Structures are given as C-alpha cells and as structure tokens.
Amino acid sequence: MAPLNIIIVGAGIAGPAAAIGLAGNGHRVTIYERSTTGQEVGYAFRITPNSDRCLKHLGIDTVVGGAVAANRARIFNSHGELIREANENTDPEMAKKATSVFAYRPQLVKQLMDAARSSGVQIETGVKVTSVDVDNTSLTLDSGATVSADLIIGADGVHSAIRSIINIVYPVDHGKLFNVTICHPAHLSDKEADQEQDNATATSYNHKVSFETVRDVHKGWDPRAIRLLELADPEGFRIWQLMDMDELPRCSRNYTALLGDACHPVLPHSFSGASMAIEDAITLSEFLERDVERKEIPGLLKLCEDVRKPRVARLRERARQTAEGTGVEGRAEYMQFLAGHDAVQFAKERLAEYKRERSQMRTGKQTQL
C-alpha cells in the first residue's frame, strides 16, 4: 500500500505531534509554518498524565527536555491565603508510565520538531498559506506555488486560516526558570491592549506589556506575589487574551481536518488546552495506519471527530466553570477523567470497533445480493 502524502499547516504542539505519529506509520509528511525560525515564543504550562502518556508513546520524554515534575501544587488567593493543595505523582510505578509536569512551551515544541525531523518529516518555515482548495486537496502558498496532498491538516492555532477557509506559577527548564501566569479582567489593561493591531496579535504570546501596568493590575495583592513580579526582567512581561470557542459543526471536510486550537481552543483553567491538542494528534495518527487507503480518509476523519468531541466538550465546560469560580466541586472526579484517559488505547479500541462495524455492513450487503 502506498503511503499517504500529508501536509500539516502549523508547527505548534498538535502539528509536529501528529507529524511524528503519521511519519511513524510510514506516511510522507510536510509541515508548513508561517514563522521564519520555527521557534516558539510562549509560556510554561501543565502537562497532565494523559498527555504525558501520549508524548511517551511518541518517544518524547518531557523531563529530559527540561520539564519539572509537578509533585505538589498549592493554590493561594490574591491575599496569600492557602485555598487548597494537592500531591501528585505519588505512585512510583504509575509515574514511570505517565507523569504530571510543568513544561516550558518553547522547549516542548523544540523536542517535538526535532523528533519530527528525525522521523523524516519535511519542515518548511517562513511559509504562509493563502488559500485552500478543499475539493482538490491543495494549498496555495504566499510564493504563489500550489502544493497537493492526500490529506491536509490545519494545526494553525486559534486564528486558524484553514478553519476560516474550509468553514468549519511553577518552575520549568530544569528548574532554572520560574513561570508566573496571572489572569485578570481585560479592562484593567485596556490601555495597552488598545495598542494591538488585530485579534491575532492580541492572542499572540509575544506582545510586551510594561511593568507599570503589571504592577497596577495587581495592586493590593499579597506582598510575596508582588515581590515575584519585581524579580522578573521588566522586558519579559507578555500579555494576551484568553479565548475559547463553542463547538464547531464539524472539524473536517473531505480530505481536510483541524486539530488542537484550530478546532477547539479552550480556556487554560482546566489544564487541558495542550492536552487536547496532543490527544487529537495521537488519535488521528492511530486511525491513519500504515495500510490505510486514501478513500478511507473522510470516514476516519469523521470517526476522529466523533471520538474527540464529547471529551473536549466536557473539558471546555469545566474550564469555563473554573474561570467563573464555579468549578470547585467534583475536582477529584474531573482530574481522574482528564488525567486517567489513555488516548492511545482508546483510539485503538474505537478503530477496531469501527472496522468491525464496516465489515458487518459489507457482509450484510453481500448477503442481500
């Protein structure tokens, strides 16, 4: 069976993760990334065991890349009062299979990109996609060139060009960096936010904000929190809008599909944004096996949607509740739902079920004839 020719637009987390899995299945994969360097500017975030399990399946060890084990988390309010604390990675045997860690996004992306290159993935940076022909499965680039594929994957983030076209605080870096992320009402920093050129810039992780604005936003906070801010490089503060999106009617069309934030951006309050991108990538790569035929792709993309949508919907709603301060109840149950999920095994089971159903349908048609 001839391998598929697959184009992925976007080199964040979902794109290279999917590329590694698909290349491992023998498919030819090319990534197009609009940034000229292919290097991320970003933040640190939590990788829960469900996504760490997926990354290990791809051969990615986040701790080797600089992530720090999230063995204990303590939550304080703005006055410095302890709200709750939780211990994680308490089972040594389970921790070997999947660990909760704090990771620095640029480092994880670099690990994924390096692994993708090692898997034979071709990566083109400084390339912008200007149009997509869904019916003919082709892209037009800003150079004027047109490239065709068996499958196009849009993994180009919350402001996905592909989507619009197809109409569908913790240590990181081996403990050398300390990440501080603080959410605040938008009106408190409107003056600097007004300087943004467009929404895409507003959600970029590279927009600088002055220390004076940061200090004013957090006036009256616990002195220890203010001291943390004062220790930071004044040029190192960044600001961006938090965004999510209601469920799309569909995340695929013919031979074109969306992954990660391009399909379902979620608020960061449920530790699930990057996790969902990684699970998307794993699920799709498990479905597109080595011997898959091109004609099977639309059905498998639909299966991927059916598998992913219910889980993402629950996580999206939980993130919204937590952002509003109403998501405290049932935390243990939620964390088990999030972290206990094995996306690889679940995808294998659903694919086997899908194949059985297809086989039974074909047998039934033959019997009727």
Protein described:
- It comes from Letharia columbiana.
- One of its GO terms (molecular function) is monooxygenase activity.
- It holds the Pfam family FAD_binding_3.
- Belongs to the paxM FAD-dependent monooxygenase family.
- This protein has about 375 residues and is of the alpha/beta class.
- Helices cover about 40% and strands about 15% of the residues.
- Strands 8-2-1-12-16-15 form a six-stranded mixed beta sheet. A three-stranded antiparallel beta sheet has the order 3-7-4.
- The longest helix has 27 residues, at about 295-325.
- Mean pLDDT is about 85; it is low at about 195-205.
Write the layout of secondary structure elements.
Elements: E1 5-9, H1 14-24, E2 28-33, E3 44-47, H2 49-57, E4 68-69, E5 72-76, E6 82-87, H3 92-97, E7 101-104, H4 105-118, E8 122-125, E9 129-133, E10 138-141, E11 146-148, E12 151-154, H5 161-166, E13 170-172, E14 177-179, H6 190-193, H7 199-202, H8 211-217, H9 223-231, E15 252-253, E16 256-258, H10 273-287, H11 297-323, H12 331-339, H13 343-368
Parallel strand pairs: 1-2, 1-12, 2-8, 12-16
Antiparallel strand pairs: 3-7, 4-7, 5-6, 9-10, 10-11, 13-14, 15-16
Helix pairs in contact: 1-4, 1-10, 2-10, 10-11, 10-13
Pfam family, one: FAD_binding_3
Signal peptide: 1-19
Domain FAD-binding: 6-176
